[in-house]
């Protein structure tokens, strides 16, 4: 099992680099990330959340484990408010407005191109994980009042470590 990095860890604020080659080490990373995600428990996990600066994430929203390598969201539409949490910000969640539909492209573990239209929960998971890979944390999606309150709680947690 891997260690999930928590709010305050600088690795979470850094954009990841594309995976250049899908090899056995990437497959092993995906396997370890899935084990870590299920144990947390969570529905998605980005590589930089476990300290690996590569552009990939894993998820399982009930249809079985999936990995997406070098994901990009190319289109969005609509709007959907939903309560969202994060494994790197444990125990906290907020209602966040995001696009309702997204189009995501990337690669699977075999190097095949993926092109996925997703909406509601699946679309939200994709946006959340791509945000991580871009170095954007959930708290940056909060409105001003929510962010102020969240940062007070999170700073006190960092200081308590």
Topology:
Blueprint: H1 24-39, E1 44-46, E2 56-59, E3 66-77, E4 80-86, E5 89-98, E6 101-107, E7 113-119, H2 120-133, H3 144-160
Antiparallel strand pairs: 1-2, 2-3, 3-6, 4-5, 6-7
Protein model, in words:
There is one protein chain. The chain has 161 residues and is an alpha+beta fold. 29% of the residues lie in helices and 31% in strands. It has a single domain, classed as Peptide deformylase (Peptide Deformylase), CATH 3.90.45. A hairpin with a 6-residue loop joins strand 2 and strand 3 (66-77).
Concise structural overview:
With about 160 residues, the chain is an alpha+beta fold.
Poorly predicted spans: none
General form: globular
What CATH architecture label applies?
Answer: Alpha-Beta Complex
Number of domains: 1
State the fourth-level CATH superfamily. Answer: Peptide deformylase
Fraction of residues in β-strands: 25-35%
Order of helices and strands: HEEEEEEEHH
Gyration radius, rounded? 15 Å
Question: Which structural class do the helices and strands define?
Answer: alpha+beta
Descriptive labels:
single chain, 161 residues, Peptide Deformylase, 29% helix
